[in-house]
Structure of tRNA modification GTPase MnmE:
Amino acid sequence: MSANGFNSPGQPGDQPARQPAAPSPEPADRETICAVATPPGMGGIGVVRVSGPATAAIARAVCGRLPAPRHAVYTSFADAGGTPIDTGLALYFPAPHSFTGEDVLELQGHGGPVVLAGMMRRLVELGARPARPGEFSERAYLNDKLDLVQAEAIADLVASGTEAAARAAQRSLSGVFSQRVDEVQERLTALRVFVEASIDFPDEEIDFLADSDVVERLEATAGAIHALLAEARQGRILRDGIELAIVGQPNAGKSSLLNALAGADRAIVTEIPGTTRDVLREWIDLDGIPVHLADTAGLRETGDRVEAEGVRRARAVLAGADLALLVVDLTEAPDPQLALLDEFPDLERARVVFNKSDRMTRDQTVPATAVPATVVSARTGAGLDSLKAAIRESVGAGEQTEGGFSARQRHVDALRRAERHVAQGRARLVDEGAAELLAEELRLAQQALGELTGEMMPDDLLGAIFASFCIGK
Ligand SMILES: Nc1nc2c(c(=O)[nH]1)N(C=O)[C@@H](CNc1ccc(C(=O)N[C@@H](CCC(=O)O)C(=O)O)cc1)CN2
Ligand SMILES: Nc1nc2c(ncn2[C@@H]2O[C@H](COP(=O)(O)OP(=O)(O)OP(=O)(O)O)[C@@H](O)[C@H]2O)c(=O)[nH]1
Ligand SMILES: [Mg+2]
């Protein structure tokens, strides 16, 4: 039940020993694959990688001999007639001690598109086929060298746009995230064993149900998932940035705020309520975190079909946002505006922005709010720096840069599903005394986590994940 073991690049011995491999099914793919592993164009060195059962035969044909395992050998790479296509270093990694777990050959020649194309033609002639994007990583995953979170971390490391993102991806790659998921899986396994045993011995079920220890353990597990979820959300933010919805009643100054934050005249601003209809997107870089702003139509009931569609879209943006700013016009009655908070899906991810502070009267005070608030003037720029700092803080960015790991929306969704099933399971037990229903919820929670690390993963989803990798990865 426990997940795949980890390979920890750079720090071997740091991670738990690999689980003894389950009787492994025949490798999913017996074809030998090849790809140029270095970027296209001219470069100092160009690397071609080969993986699969024909690798040793290919090495003999191209290099004239099989290089000693894991030793760099200087050799020429011969075409079918024995003429060198290039000279360079050959590296042979016999299975299972390679990146993919299969026999791997690396031919490190001179970078250049023509030479590399010639090498690829030769490898195909010898029976290899060009790899699909991500296929080397996919094989590493299928051969238990990496779990899915780690394979995704490789792609995220390559694609990372900031140093913080790269460090986080490196930590996921080293197994930090996967290990935390495995710990939760182990708790769930222990609970399932206990719960299912009690179902098998119905006479003792009464005792079991009275045993508050199970409820405590359920709560502790829910707490562990909740903490992991919070960290995964942070990890996703480092990778993807955050979606920030700007909502409020018409004329509150939402479009003015977007323009002020973006430092550009992007959105149309008029004194006519109902100016914005389409969702207008702009992004800003907030100390290395991409913040994707969405300016929306003012929330109100309206008979105008176009505006009504805008309001519908505004609500959709609000539902999907990582953080939502409710812009409140200080020159208008605050209460009906603050009542819009009732429409927010999650008050933990909401802020109030009191706008038009330049028009505040001398004795005017700002009302208390259920969520944190900032006072600004989109017109003069007053308060915008505090708002930016508050945005960073609301999403916890900054705390994240040390010790965090990278994560994707897919991971966050899976953790949320697991959290929900554990909560539902607890309710089944406490409210209904239904141990069987609890067992089922625990099974579903484990399944959600299994999809996260890829232990239980539908093939088409796997295909979609690896297809987004680079060729040669
Ligand atoms: N030249 C080259 N550099 C590269 C890669 C590569 O494939 N080739 N990598 C490609 O992404 C990354 C390194 N990843 C690797 C991961 C595992 C093994 C490997 O041989 N693993 C064996 C042995 C481990 C050991 O000796 O400790 C194994 O897991 O059994 C090699 C590279 C980055 N640098
Ligand atoms: N005095 C003052 N006026 C502002 C401020 N921000 C916006 N306004 C004015 O308020 C009016 C509405 O501004 P918009 O930014 O278009 O408001 P909105 O919320 O996008 O409005 P809709 O798109 O209609 O929902 C305009 O006349 C702006 O010039 C501010 O900070 N101070
Ligand atoms: Mg507007």
Observations:
- Residues 25 and 36 are 29 Å apart (CA to CA).
- The pocket of FFO (ligand 1) is lined by residues 7, 9, 12, 93, 96-99, 106, 145 (CB under 6 Å).
